Amino acid sequence: MSNIFDNFLFESNGAMTLKDAVCRFLQEEIAFGRVKGGEKLPTMGEISEATGLTYGRARGVVERLEKEGYVHSRPYIGTVVLPRGGNILRGRVLLILPEADAVRYSPTILISTIGRSLTEAGYAFSVATFSLDPNDGLALLRSELLRATELVIALYATPNVHRHLEESGVNYILVCGDRPELHGSRWIRFSPESAVTHFAGHCARTGVRHVVQVRLDGDVAIDAQPALAKCGIDSSWLTISRGVANGGRYADLVNRACEMFGAMPRKRIRDLFLFWNTFVAQGAVMAFLNRGIRLPEDVKVVVRSDAEIAPVYTKPFTRFEVDPVKAGEKVANFALAVLAKGRIPRPPTIPLQYVFGATFPF
Asked: Is the N end or the C end of the chain the one with fewer CB atoms within 10 Å?
């Protein structure tokens, strides 16, 4: 028991406090059976010395474990781990996603659906967000992967994350959009075909003559041009330079998009803008509203997701999005199949939905 904290790692990055990290570590040690029922937990002083917590916060960790049914404090004996009734967890599944995407897509329902299915199947489920800043953005990810993990689910995975998972040698699956460089048996992709066809038909029915697709430089965006062409609708691309946003400072990207669309000549503001990046969309919509350009009377707007734009424009956007419950169930079922078979079966696809909102009504 004296070496229980030999495998404890913590990197301060703002995603989790030291107290929470110590508590989660002890919960998993007990849940996985590495600390068995009847054994004594280290004293508060030992926890404090081993982890760097103050004595008061170490006491808070023990109190939380007791409240959640992991341990019981006995006078003159110490804190004893309670038997788990034979319910030793089958393993640990870690879901990771970039901090910016946690804001951009607000995937709370999707993640909770995945977690509920995996927990019911007997797995410990945890979530870690990390920055994509090239200087230290993968520090949290590296520390998490050093812990015993049966499977990593990378949500909205990027090539850098993919490469890091490959180098780490962990078992993983990817959940992301249409990234050709990530094609393979571990990749659950978002399928846009049906939603894009629906969008093109909507444009045709409402008399849209020209669609400007807007993407961020370096992003692999969905291309609606073939579907629009079939409906006789012209389209063009507008690419926004990534610049400093490549370092994770997405507020700069919003501001630059706002400046760009704020200075755009009125004659270049066409019938409809289709934004494949929500940070660019946020800046553009701010510029439109500042200039008195009305949505949807003067210009129609469709976005990839409206989670990030809600503070700018309070009405729901016409958008492409996934059904979070159905998507979560698909991801969880695929993860369980990987865990059960020990190999990667054929991955499913997650269809995007085309959802009507106030910026391009039905």
From this structure: C
Q: Mean pLDDT, the chain, as a whole number?
A: 83
Positive or negative: CA dihedral 308, 310, 313, 319: positive
Residue 288 predicted with pLDDT over 90: yes
pLDDT(1) > 50: no
d(CA 121, CA 116): 9
Looking at the structure, do residues 147 and 102 belong to the same domain, yes or no?
A: yes
Q: Are residues 209 and 182 in the same domain?
A: no
Q: Tell me: do 182 and 169 sit in the same domain.
A: yes
- How many domains does the chain divide into? 3
Question: Does residue 355 lie within any of the structural domains?
Answer: no
- Model confidence at 202, pLDDT cuts 50, 70, 90, reads very high
Query: How much is the pTM?
Result: 0.71
**Domain, as residue range, for 33:** 4-81
Q: Which string of b and e fits 42-66 if b means at least 16 CB within 10 Å?
A: bebeebbebbebeeebbebbbebbe
Which CATH number covers residue 34? Answer: 1.10.10.10
Distances (CA, A) of 68 to 53, 72, 117, 122, 261: 20, 10, 21, 17, 52
Q: What is the pLDDT of residues 22-58, one digit of tens each?
A: 988 898 888 877 888 778 889 999 999 999 999 999 9
CA distances from 285 to 56, 100, 265, 309, 360 (A): 49, 19, 15, 8, 14
Q: Give the CATH number, domain containing residue 157.
A: 3.40.50.2300
Q: pLDDT for 308-318, tens place per residue?
A: 566 778 889 99
Q: How many CB atoms lie within 10 A of CB 325?
A: 12
